Every structure is written in C-alpha cells, then in structure tokens.
Amino acid sequence: MRTSPKPRTDGPVPRTPARSPDPPPSGPPTARTSLPGDARAPSAARRFVRGVLAGWNAHAVVTDDATLLVSELVTNAVVHAGTSVDLECRLDPARGGSLVVEVTDHHPTREFRARPRQGGGDRADGPAHGGQGLRLVAELAETWGTAYRRTDKTVWFHLPTSPRDPTGPAYAVDQTLLGDLRVAEILAPGTPCEPPVRRLGDSGPHRALSFLAEASELLSGQFDEDTVASLATQLAVPRLADWCAVWLDAESSPGGLRPAPRLSRVWHARESCVDPLRIALQRTPPALAAAGRAVPWPHAPAGTSDGPAGGSALACRLVAGGRGVGTLLLGRSGPTTMSGDIVSLTEDFARHLALSLASARKYTRQATISRILQRGLLPRRVAEIPGIDKAVVYEPRGDTTAGGDFYDVFAAGRGRWCFALGDVCGSGPEAAVTTGLVRPWLRLLAKEGYGVGDVLTRLNRMLGEEAAEAETAGTGPRFLSLLYGELAPHRDGVRCTLASAGHPLPLLLRPDGSVRSVAAPQMLLGVVDDVGYGSQAFDLAHGDTLLCVTDGVTERKAGNRLFDDGDGLAAALAGCAGLTAEGVAGRIRRAVHGFAPTPPDDDLALLVIRAE
C-alpha cells in the first residue's frame, strides 16, 4: 500500500505524466457525489455525469466519453474494492476548461485491472469483471493516472471539452476499438420486430460501448449461470434482436460422455411469443464449431401467431479460455437481414457472456467443493450424553467457505464424553488442512485415555512437528486456539474438566442468572513446542449452562466496538436463564447478528452444554 499520494498508472502509458491536478484557487465548476458500493452504483454514476455535463453545456461526444469511462471505473471499484465510491467532476481552466473526473474507492490495496487487447499476448491477472476497464481510459482520455493514499485510491482522467478531430489519432483509435461499427443503426430506438431506423452521428460508437459496458456490469456480478443467461437474453432484446436464446453446455460425465446442451433461457420482444419460440427451438439446437464467431443460422423459427413469419438468425458459440460453455442465438422477425455491424457487436457481446458464464460455473464448482470439504471437516453427528442438553451453532463466513472454526462432541469410553471448540488461525485451504488434522488427533488422544491437560500438551507437540514439515515445504506455521473438555455424568450432575489454549474463556450460567468465566487462559497451540497445559474441574449442577464460543462471537464488530466489550457476552447470557440449550444458542446467535447491520466478517461457532 502506498502511504503517500504518489500517482501511478496501470495499463498503457498515458500521453503525459500521470499526475492528478489540484484544483486552482479560484475554484473551477465542480460537482461531487457518493455512490453505494453495490450494483446500483454504475447506473447512478452515469445519470450523475450526464446531468452534470448537461448543466455545463458539454458537447455530446464529451458526455458520451465521460459517461462510458465513469461507468467502467465505478464498476471496477464496486467489483474489486467493494466499498462506497466517491465521484467528482470539474472543469480545469489551466487546461483550457478540460473535464477532470475522479473515481475514488476506499480500499487502497486493491488495484483495478486493465483488460488485455483482443488477441494480445499479455494477460492481466484476475477476472475481467470491469469490461474494457483502463484500456478505454488510456485510449479515450487525454491524460489519466492512479493516486494511492492511506485510506483510498483514485483513478482520474482528463477529457478535452471540445469535440475531437475526426482525422485525429484518438478518433482513429476509437474507430479501431469499435470494429468500425455503425451502431447508431443497431441500437437506435425502434419498434420491436421492425427494422430500426438508420441514424448516423458521432454518438453512435459510444452507444455500443455503453451497451457492452452495461452488459459486462450486469453479467459479471452473477454467480449462477442460469441467471447470467436470463440477463443476457433480456439485454439483447430488443436492442440487438427481436428474440434471443441461450443454450448451456453440460459438464462431461465421468465416462467422458457429454450430455446434450440445455436450453437455459428464451426471450422475445413480445411476451406471448416466448413459449411458442421455446418449443420451436427445443427441436433444433444449434450445432456449431467452437470458433466464437457469429454465423447465419438457417433454422430460424417460422414465426408465431403474434409475429411475422420468417426472419433471420445468428448463432455464436460461447467460448471462454478455449472451452465452449454454451451457444447464443439471436433472431429478427420479418424480412430483416443481419448486417455486418450486428455480427461484430454480437461477437463482442458473446465474449462478455461467455466469460461471465465461465466465471459463474467456476464459482459454482468451487462452492460445491467447499461445501463437500466443509462437511468432511465437521462431525456427521454429535454424541448423545446422558443428562446433558446441548446445541451447536456453526456459520462459516460467506456460508460456502471452508472455515477455520470447528467443533466436536464424541464418546471417549469408560463413561467419558469429550467436546472441543477450536479456531485455526488463518482461513482457506491451509486452515482447512489443519482442521482436518486436529479433529482426528483429538479423538485418538482422548480414546487412548489421556487427561484434558495431557491431550493439549501432546496436541501442541504434534502441531509443532507438523509446522516444521510445513516450513520445509514452504508453507507457514499452524496456530490453533482450542477449548477442550471432558464430561463425566454422575448422580448429582456432571463433572466437567476443561482447558483453554488461547481461546475465549467459557462462561457458566447458573439458574439464578449469575454468570462467571471458568478455566484459565493458556498459550495458543503451535506457538511454543515445549510447554505443558493444565486443566480445571468443576461440577455442572442441574440447570447449569456452559457457553463456549469462538472469537467470531466475542470480536464481532460494530464500528469501533466489539460484542464482548464491557462483558457484553456475559450480559447476553445472563438473560438466558431457564432456557433450553437450543434456546440459549438461538438467543446468543441473534444477539451477535443484531449487534451490527452488516453480516459477520468471521466464522461464527458456539457450543451450549446444559445439565438437565
């Protein structure tokens, strides 16, 4: 992270040194707004820029350029930074009244990524969420740059307020970028199922880019491929065609056989035509080479009762990373033919769609693997203990991530039952690997008859040996906080022996509502090899409740406050006297979630043990 506002550029080198100009003392015309860090931001940014520039009587070309670039930059900020976005427009008298636009997010360590040129040899790291991104900024803006500060990051650009020279280099680059499209003809408003009116003008090319930017913005934020297909059909109709369909390729089966493509979504400008069109298309799915090129499709449906017969259609394989993910089909009713401009724009649209489908499919696959892995890291069932009512709440961050928190309740033999609640330092695969090691080790040591303190001592030694091997392999050490206990029911209640290693101390709730912590704090596991752990023993009388939590509960944040500040957890538990274990678990969970308006940003786990 840069700690000083030194500008930096990503992507192509700007035409002048990248230095964000300071406003002159006289105070040029300036407009500012703040946008939410969600899907509403890009469209709000476009409306704001158009409104501001209309008030400043800016030329239509400047307005279209600025709107397009702001849409791309705000989309990047929302996707990659995930924070609110500040947008500022001003006129710079020092540069002949040129337009200066700044887009600021509040996550300075996350950088925008520039999309590579089509067919280029260089690849940008990370997913291409933001359409053409900084490539457009570099090619349309007079100058641009990125400024990093302690708390935010700004991407700024200059645009001349006078119309560009049609013979100048910037205009020529723009035409190359657009593939020489005459998109005023393609995207001109018109009646669905009728040929659009041909319109010429400088604003035409930028309407195509705005369409592609909007498509990228809407499609890239979706994690379900059917949702992506549905949005794509509604984007294409009626701006590109009168009807649209998307087939999705199925994953290969274990035997290497690939099922037939699935017709995911069909859309028509006239809603009454959707069902007849779907029936017609199901009979003849396109069979195309995986070239990613739009080609005429001779099997266009003959029309419906609500639309003219005949028509033309374009089919395009959806290819991402050299692999086909589906097929896009666009059609127009009546005698209209698909021009070369429509073919070019369809191919650009198909590339955006293919990348979004591939990303959604990859996300779904990873989420599925994560859920399977998570199920393997947690016990399939917790043991039943005589005289004990128990409840568990476990919520990994984001619901689909294999978290670092884990729990277990199991029989250890000879009238003993053991429980554990742990938190591996870190997250992701490395934390999951440690969890996968610790739980079986705990069970093995407990069933070998070791006491609570001895189990932690030996577990700490095993983690140290594992850390030495991990360091040799180039991975970091594995630290673990753990609350581990043993329960032995008897006639008057339950004898509980437990130990806490770097873990939030458990709380004991008496039937009268009094709360106290039990156990003593000890060293985190995996930090020091040669250390011995002790344990504390006490009786759980009838009606006593033991609450064990991970730091996802105690360190839940609301601004600068934590949930456990001022013994907040003990206060919440004191109000649970007389509740069942499930009732206590549910009430504490609701209190944790209600402590802040945002979802928890850490794994959350708690174990409630109540003597009946």
Description:
With 612 residues, the protein is an alpha+beta fold. Helices cover 33% and strands 25% of the residues. The chain has 14 helices and 24 strands. It has helices spanning 41-55, 60-81, 134-140, 169-177, 183-187, 204-220, 225-236, 274-283, 340-377, 428-447, 452-472, 551-554, 568-574, 581-594; strands at residues 7-8, 30-35, 85-92, 98-105, 143-148, 153-159, 243-248, 262-268, 294-296, 311-320, 323-333, 388-395, 405-413, 416-424, 480-490, 493-501, 507-509, 515-517, 521-522, 536-540, 545-549, 557-558, 561-562, 604-611. The strands form five sheets. Strands 1-5-6-4-3-2 form a six-stranded antiparallel sheet, covered by helices on one side. A hairpin with a 4-residue loop joins strand 5 and strand 6. Helix 10 (428-447) runs antiparallel to helix 11 (452-472). The chain is elongated, with a radius of gyration of 31 Å. 42% of the residues are buried.
Notable features of this structure?
single chain, 612 residues, alpha+beta, six-stranded antiparallel sheet, six-stranded mixed sheet, 14 helices, 24 strands, 33% helix, 25% strand, elongated
Explain briefly what this protein structure is.
The protein is α+β, with helices and mostly antiparallel strands and 612 residues long.
User: How much is the radius of gyration in Å?
Assistant: 31 Å
Beta-sheet strand percentage?
A: 15-25%
| Low-pLDDT residue intervals, each spanning 5 or more residues | 1-25, 109-132, 165-204, 304-309
Fraction of residues in H or I helices = 25-40%
The secondary structure category is alpha+beta
